[in-house]
Amino acid sequence: MMLKPIDLTIAVLYILFIFVIGLWTGWQHKRSIKGKSGQAYFLAGKTLAWPAIGLALFATNISTVHLVSLAQSGFDTGLLNGNFEWMAAFTLILLALFFIPFYLKSGVSTLPDFLERRYDRASRDWLTVISIISAIVIHIAFSMLAGGIVLKTLFGFNMYLSISAICVVTGIYTIIGGLKAVVVTESIQTIVLLLGAFIISFAAFHQMGGWQPMVTVLKENAELEKLSMLRSSSDPSGMPWYAVLFGYPVLGIWYWCADQTIVQRVLGAKDENHGRIGALFCGFIKILPVFIFILPGLFAYTLSQTGRLDLQSLGVNDQGEVNSKGIYALMITQLLPSGLIGILVAALLSGLMSQISGALNSISTLVSYDIYKRFRPQAHDEQLIRAGKVAAVIAMIVSLGLLPLLNKYESIFNGINDVIAHIAPPITCVFLLGVFWKKASPMSAKLTLWIGSVLGIVVFTISKYDLESFIGKIPFMVMAFYLFVVCLVLQISLSFLFPTKTNIQRHDLYWKNPLDALRGPAWKGVGNYKFLSILLFTVICLLYALFH
């Protein structure tokens, strides 16, 4: 498809608009703080309010990967992958209630810094390395890949040149403006992304003639299970209900509560309440992706079954099935008129740019505070900022180099979660026990991170080289739970073998009673974090009751 002038104009103007807003925000922020402060650059001077935190959390999480791959999953398996969106609300409640108070009270700049205060320096170093690698692979490279595939499929652009150009634009305002520029641009990009998703959802809904015609087609094809979120153990998807129930929390707690790229937005909060409400606000927004990212893919499937969507241009895969990777691009070209296509391109770019900017900022922070400052403890703020900027440039170059390797996954979304499932268990274990169990010791945390990570790499390698005969064919969500249980037993055992020594600072970094988390300062009325937590929990449970 050739991009028409109006669509190209919208896309180019959008990129320029975000670029200017990012630079202007960073410049204004520098003037307001009257100098270059490390905290102001990396944590926005701790001035972020809850709406910006919530929108930025969502924007950092949602990328082009979600727009493209969730539509693909909707086409292939129905609403099943919506579990990754709705289950996230439960982990965001955990973040708001139990983790945010410690992170803000301790005054840390990074999560590895928190881990050192709770355990030791070795734990901090290991998490720093894992966090930087995961930010490069999961948050940047996979997002670049998804964006490049769409731009190439839609408009015939060279994938590497187009992605490189967008990365340069995003990198400039991110590196110059710091977290303040990232959060402001992410807030705008969230709105644009949601607008684009609503447009394609309405177009698919309208073309199908509504909800009931879609249900009728599924019933005629004996595929009503595509409307179910929780599947039986015999479901061919490999993600039954128990895998979601036990496996997702392992992935989700690492991603939402212990991943620097995500939690950095919370670390920049004005105060505890703004951090908590921002996280819960994101939890409410996470309800939407099932309806505006996944459901359009399901509508595309039923439209193709009735002949109202032509799939010939997609081709078939090695199994003779429709190659659904390009279903989102196909929907854009066949369901939308010129002009609206430009808005969808802007939405795709929003997802790509927000993901890259958020990850670059977190990498800068990690390298500056957890690596550079370790070897140069007397480094002043300007040196830390300079080190962070250099790290961001290197991270972009490395991410571009990884694109050919990551392009082997049939589903990019599943590829991301497959990687997370093998690196998350030891980190989730160490953070959970560290926050909730007094006896979790430094030696136990260090060894659990080391052994658990190596075990995850071994299992991942076995699954990728068709050596499953050693362990059997286990779905990655179930494997994540098994690895977590191993890490849990390991750390508890090691904590008794190598008990913790008295440390006054460490004494304040775990909940002596979980109910203490609910005794923190709270706003009155509907802004009370306890009320919003209960409301969000109830809404998600009701949604699961409707789509079980």
Automatic annotation (TrEMBL):
It is found in: Membrane. Pfam families: SSF. Its main location: membrane. GO terms for cellular component: plasma membrane. One of its GO terms (molecular function) is D-glucose:sodium symporter activity. Keywords: Membrane, Transmembrane, Transmembrane helix. It is a multi-pass membrane protein. PANTHER family: SODIUM_GLUCOSE COTRANSPORTER 4, SOLUTE CARRIER FAMILY 5. Belongs to the sodium:solute symporter (SSF) (TC 2.A.21) family. This is Solute:Na+ symporter, SSS family.
